[in-house]
Amino acid sequence: MNRIKKRTYYRQRISDSGQNSKKLWNVRNEIMDKRTACSSFIESDGIYLTKPFHIANYFNDYFVDKVSKIRWSMNSTLNSNSEESIKECIMNYKTCTFEFHPVDVGMVERLLKSLTDSKSTGIDHLEGKLLRKYAPYVSTPVCHIFNRCLISGVFPMTRKE
User: Fold this and answer.
1) Spatial distance between the Cα atoms of 101 and 99, rounded to a whole number of angstroms
2) Mean pLDDT of the chain
3) d(CA 69, CA 130)
């Protein structure tokens, strides 16, 4: 956000706080970035949005509008056949293929050993440190399960979430 708008915004906030010292200190802390919460705001048509709910709705409306404009800009005669629409408008009739290839135990073990502690756990709640430590022991069964899922096309429901 440019400095002029930010300065104008905070001057207005200071002015609005009037004689209320608590509001004034809150503005001061926001300016000095003393809060743990994000002190962001967005200007929309001259109005400052400061509440997370309003900011989220602003972004939601923005992206919904973008998608609507993209859909509208696509040739309406192609919309009846979405596959043809994708081929013509998005892919420009390029030929692309996509295939899954089986993984080997060595690849799974290398990937497990490359996990870091800074990553959060997944839905299985297994920490990277634990998976790294036991990678030589679990890489074979993990590899087998993964390859069976690829071959059969059946994946555990928890992995689809």
Assistant:
1) 6
2) 80
3) 47
Last residue of a domain, one of 50, 71, 89: 50
Reported in sequence order, the residue ranges of the chain that DSSP labels E, i.e. its strands, are 42-44, 47-49
Listed residues 28, 50, 72: the one ending a domain: 50
The answer to the question of residue 148 being in a domain is: yes
Domain tally, the chain: 2
The answer to whether 132 touches 112, Cβ cutoff 8 Å, is yes
Contact 58, 49 (CB under 8 A): yes
Render pLDDT for 43-90 as a digit per residue (tens, 0 to 9): 778 788 888 888 888 888 888 888 888 777 765 544 556 677 777 777
Residue 140 lies in a domain: yes
Give the domain extent around 16: 3-50
Tell me which H or E stretch contains 74.
none
The predicted model scores a pTM of: 0.41
Neighbours of 41 (CB within 10 A): 19
